[in-house]
């Protein structure tokens, strides 16, 4: 079950969340008591917890004390070593999987009722005819309309083992009686490739939102689809991609890099180096590739961009990436919780460490976006600060720099107009999603007839809708300029894009937004140059 959650995420939080993780194989540590029994530091902590448990004047939840202690320890190591409590472990792990088992809908809880946003593509609900606007009232006779039921509880009730039957009772506008749908829970894809389509007759486009278990397989399918369409050039969009599994990034880079060329190497605390090379003939080794990055492209995204740049393959376009070059491995703590601990640094083929400094502490580290914003780096390439002592040269003679992020070959400034940036955050952050959902609910019968072929004709964003969005925002103490000739068309476009996303999915959504995208325009221009 995938739910849409959250209302407008502040910019600093969105940047902090961009610090993606690179996961290696799990460490096969022996976590038995014997391993640490002679450790006086462990004995000291155990003794303190026992004293609190048995002697302290009030009852204390020592589990929470342990959680706080673990978090404080990790905070003093680096920004990317993190603790995952056992109650969060399942959802964190699921987010990096390529699928989940459930009925396959995204939903809002409106009042006391589950309302379907849309049935997920290729999921069980889509296959049996569940539609946006349907209200799921019962599952296997169990009532789901209850104000006291949280979204997590509802999700738990709708999930289950694969192939287990579910009978849903659904209220649909225009029908007096509840509709009955019988289905079996099944695997529902959690797509990491948001969009695949042709930008021009020769240039294909693939947008990857993270590096999950199925990302390379999705990417391969997308690449084959575009090749059949005649693509001789590929635009790989990694903007906003926080990273994920290192193996998936390596496999994607291998599609463009010739055999036996170095993709990256890692170095641990003892100085041991592990090198990874391209191992097979990729489908696009002789094609032209553009990689789109920005200040939120992190971790595994930087592995791909750095490997291509250092091998003189393709062109990196956009703005300096996040700067996360630490490698984590996940380690079980024995009680259902886990820690993702930094165990090495990764380096690009020329020897660059892309990890930015975290010597001033985590708070300063996660505020790096604001420093870039204030020093003008997002709007001018000349404002990017480089260290000449970290200067490297690729085999083809290109000068590149380490010290924090991948600096693109072709710089494209960010539109830093505050009003425009706020509109973008509203689109990506949740406010607009809820507003548009309410709009669609007013006439589901009509909107459910919208298709890829007719959406331009059928979806019209009126001035009344713009004013309605302004009124909606005031309920959250937010305001937007709905009258300016500069922003009115953009707001209209964003509302329409969100309507398309809820009705038709992310592929059409991204395609629609890209029509007004500086980086896409630059890529198309570069693709036509010889």
TrEMBL record:
Cite a single Pfam family from the UniProt record.
Answer: PDZ_2
User: Where would you find the membrane-spanning parts of this chain?
Assistant: 7-27
Residue ranges of every copy of the PDZ domain listed in the record: 89-159
SMART domains according to UniProt: PDZ, TSPc
Alphabetically sorted, this entry's keywords are:
Hydrolase, Membrane, Protease, Serine protease, Transmembrane, Transmembrane helix
Q: Which NCBIfam families match?
A: prc (TIGR00225)
The record's comment on protein family reads:
Belongs to the peptidase S41A family.
What's the protein name?
S41 family peptidase
Q: Which organism is it from?
A: Christiangramia antarctica
